[in-house]
Amino acid sequence: MEDRIVLSGKSFLDGSPLKLRIGGGLISRVEKIAEPLPDDQFLGPGLMDIQVNGYGGWDYNAVYDEVLSLGQISRKLLQVGVTSHFPTIITNSPEQISRLIRQIVTLCREDKVARDCIAGIHIEGPFISPEDGPRGAHPREFVQAPDWDLFERWMVESQGLVRMVTLSPEWDNSPSFIEKCVEKGILVSIGHTKASPAQVIAAVAAGARLSTHLGNGMHGQIARHPNYLWSQLAEDRLAASIIADGFHLPPEVIRVFKRAKGEQLLLVSDSTSLAGMPAGDYELHIGGQITLSPEGKLHLRSNPQMLAGSAMNLLQGIEFLLEKELATLSEAWKMASTRPHRLFDPMFDPIKVGAKADLILIQKGPNQSLKVLKTIKNGKEVFSS
Ligand SMILES: [Zn+2]
């Protein structure tokens, strides 16, 4: 027996009334309907977060005796509408990165929910800038030049799960490393860099296609021009991810990035395990001693200017864009769903007959607040509020 679900709501694209029938894990019918629908309920694709360090108290960058406890991240993210995510492993020793990868492989093998929700692994580092500022909260001792043999080992250990890497093109061998990644179908993103404009262009020529959390992982002060921010902003072949949590980027910067990048701007959460946790002082793998302020700002305890990942989820990122009038609901939703999907699958189209049924029904409340009413993953209802 297969589950049959019928969902209706206003389309995330244009607000037109939409009814979807779901069977066998797929959308089996798409109907425009005439009957009146609640004015505040919107239907669209589940969110995809390509940068998740951790969530709800669990951390992909920590080793657990009970590996399956990491499955809580997938379950908690489903409750906030994130139906696909990329566990993100940051700079560490080669052995520890191997261990963290194998942990995710085990998780995916033994936990169907995690297997369904984890769309790939994002390796952020260790091939980034060693310099204070661009390096952000990544531990300097493990930063190194790109090493293909090492990366290939991680790819093999991940059994195909590694699909994305963030690196700095400031290393001499970056272009050849990027070419090898592209050959293997790995998405290369530029981040945590002090690369020269020429190095940025060489990286793009070699196949880099994205900037990771553009505007963060930078020096506090840079030369007015040229610099690595202008060169990435001006490069039309680079999409860009941003962290829209209200702390990483001021609204006017997001507005300008949006003008520069157009439909190539997308959202990531960069959430750490402290996303969804109470304010206070914590000890974390990323950067060690971390403070989560009552406002939700996550920074190094020793330096409140130095952000250490975010404490939000993608849905809150959409809320922030709406609240600051930086995007419409439709646009912000695309930034957190179809656009990240299309980095890996250019033909991705979430609302059509035969599409995998990863869907959410959202209620838009006063003050631009959003609430997930239902989450459908692989055609099954996995969350309902
Ligand atoms: Zn980062």
TrEMBL record:
Protein name: Amidohydrolase family protein
Family: Belongs to the metallo-dependent hydrolases superfamily. NagA family.
The keyword Metal-binding is annotated on this UniProt entry: yes
Keywords, sorted A to Z: Carbohydrate metabolism, Hydrolase, Metal-binding
InterPro entries: Amidohydro-rel, GlcNAc_6-P_deAcase, Metal_Hydrolase
Species assigned in the record: Algoriphagus oliviformis
Amidohydrolase-related domain span: 45-382
Top-level taxonomic group: Bacteria
SUPFAM superfamilies given in the database record: Metallo-dependent hydrolases
